[in-house]
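Pipeline run #58 for the internal structure catalog. This entry was flagged by the ingest filter as a single-chain record with no existing model, so it goes straight to prediction. Upstream metadata was stripped on purpose; only the residue string is passed forward. Reviewer on rotation: M.T. Logging verbosity set to normal.
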Amino acid sequence: MTERTPKTRRLAEMKRWTYILPVIVFIYVICYIDRTNISFALPHLKTDMGLSGAQQGLASGIFFWGYLLLQIPGGYMAERWSAKRWIAILMVLWSIAAMASGFVNTFGELILARFLLGVAEGGVQPALMATIRCWFPFAERSRAYAIFKLYTPIAAILAAPFSGLILTFADWRWMFIIQGGGPLVVGLIAWLVVMRDTPAKAGWLSVNERNFIERSRLEEGEPLKHRGTFKAAFSSGIVWHFALTYTLTQMGLLGLTLWLPSVLKKAFHTDMQVGFVAILPQIAAGIAIILIGRSADRRGGHVAHMVAVLVAGALILSGASLISPSQKWLVLGALILGTAASIAWYGPFWATVTKLVPLAAAGAGMGLINGVGNLGSFIGPYVGGWLTDLSGGGYALTQAFFGLVFALAALLVLPLRKKLRAAANAEPVKAEPVPAVKD
């Protein structure tokens, strides 16, 4: 019994990992599925509403224009007001907008519904990331953000069968309604039950765990309370440095995402084979995210981890341009390693952001980085498509370009090493009494 007690106590004092993070991941998996499910509906929309190719492209892309609007206010509101209330409001609005897509009858109504969905979802991610920052000391953030990023492979694995099942027994209208409403109700209830704006307000948190979180943040030089401003975010050079780096990584990631199905189709021919092997890169990505995030927290060297992963992604993508589709197992191996490398840097990256971005720019700055970075999602497809046309329909030039994009991102990360080392040696902040109050 004496050996079990310490272990039991440790488990009891890890509720920030077992309460907060699973709810956050679940919420953003729903978010990601609602964002991407239109790709499964487009063939049906083309038939039922007579959409042209250009209209289908606009219906898919208009989401991202709405998504930009609340990026900066999202992190700001979570920090200055209440992450719990702010995200709950956005979840309700996003559910309404998602379900509204199932009731549209004209192209204009579809565009409006998708745009409003983007607006509502746009404020969610920076608010969730600000929440993680509040609940996890810097020494744990690489792992925490890595777990959050699991929404990408999880949603990628679940989206197709979930949407396909609904479309098999119903139509595209019910797909939007069910995916927009049903799961989100569960997510909203879980969010309201579990979430508190600060550890001090969480009645389910032990005193030891709350004290550990607050003491660790203070020892790392972070005050528990601060008031950020929009001006500080826009005027911070390091925020724009991170934003440019994130833009490049998103370009590379989206380039890989768009390239993957086409190359797999050429290599494996049948839809069943493609569907099966397409899951493997996502599984590898999930494993890589956790391993890199864990290693960065335990060993330090966040910048070294990012550079290593980004360089690996650059080499894999560039080298894959030399592989013929007939070498299908080499193609699959390159895609598995490339997909893993393309997002495994996520945990150390956002942990570094929380350490180097000035506190006055923290909430709005995270939104600015995420918002500007997502411009890579707009630029990537156009550049990739243009390069594919330029090379006569081949993907070699496209792969080489996106490999170069990852290499440039790695070069931008390198100068952060000295800054992160200096920030890690910051003076501790004096503790201020924070009453434990349930909300």
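catalog note: The chain has 22 helices and no strands.
catalog note: The chain has two domains: 15-225, 226-426.
status: ready for reviewer M.T.
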